[in-house]
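Usage

Read records sequentially. Each one opens with the input sequence:
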Amino acid sequence: MASDPSLIFTNVDYNAQGKQVDWLYLPHSVTRSAYGALAIPIAVIRNGDGPTVFLMSGNHGDEYEGQITLAKLIRELEPEQVRGRIIILPAANLPAAMAGTRVSPIDQGNLNRAFPGDPQGTPTWAIAHYIDSVLYPMADFHHDLHSGGSSLKYVPFCSMRNSGDPALDARSLAALQAFGAPLSLVWAYNPEGRLAGAAAARRGLVSLGGEFGGGGDVNRSSLAMLEGGVRRFLAFAGVLANTPAPEPRTDMRMIEVSSREHYVYANEAGLLEPLVDLGAEVQAGDPAGRIHFIDNPGREPVTCHFRRAGMVVCQRHFGRVERGDCVAHLGTDV
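and closes with the structure output:
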């Protein structure tokens, strides 16, 4: 089915010069709208020949910094500022973005676990298929903007994902240095990954990601870092007219997440008391959090421990946990 053409249609002409702000229409027949469609916003800005950059946010609907950044970029960029083409999808999983949820309220689909998608599938998988089969083949560069969503808090970072192709990884690393985040992360190679970044790597795109905040709010410093970094990424790609490529940042801290040992999971259900701060340096065996049992207050709390040394780049935001919830995860220096 993945080789079938997409059912999504649009009035956008990807080859036309100028600026278009329109919608992708995914047929969605329901009781209140028998011949209806989900209208997913998209912008295309083109001026002459040059590279194509595809920017995406709203992959998870409760991650807001990227959605704001790309909405502002759509309003601010004009064709005379562009050399080539910029495609912007600010609310990729529109049902999730409108609901402020990680997954779609229509099909409970997690877009970032749905690639390469299915054109005959439910909306989340149909959207993934359109991105993978229509938008990625047009692009040379890709940036998928994330944050921790409502359940996680992150130390803001930009990231790349190893592709297994050394030449492509070197170009992505150069893009990461051009983005200029103080903290940058390299995700492990996963050739079978269902994430957008893994799919972009399979298409040969120079691709970045990142986690720019979290906790279900909009962090002003993270937003400022993201807005400036996206502009530098566009300049690095050569798609901004009269804007030289930025100097690569060489003083950023490079970390990686390369194994499940970087993650700490709740081993009981209860109320989580964090025992370290976000951004702290820890050692293997250090306590990550303590789980309390308010329905049985006489019971001693249970402690979760880190399994290796590193920097705490992510912590759970919600106070209540179930067994198996991620309490925290580390990054370790490359």
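Summary fields computed downstream for this record:
- The domain at 261-333 is CATH 2.40.50.100 (OB fold (Dihydrolipoamide Acetyltransferase, E2P)).
- The CA atoms of residues 30 and 36 lie 7 Å apart.
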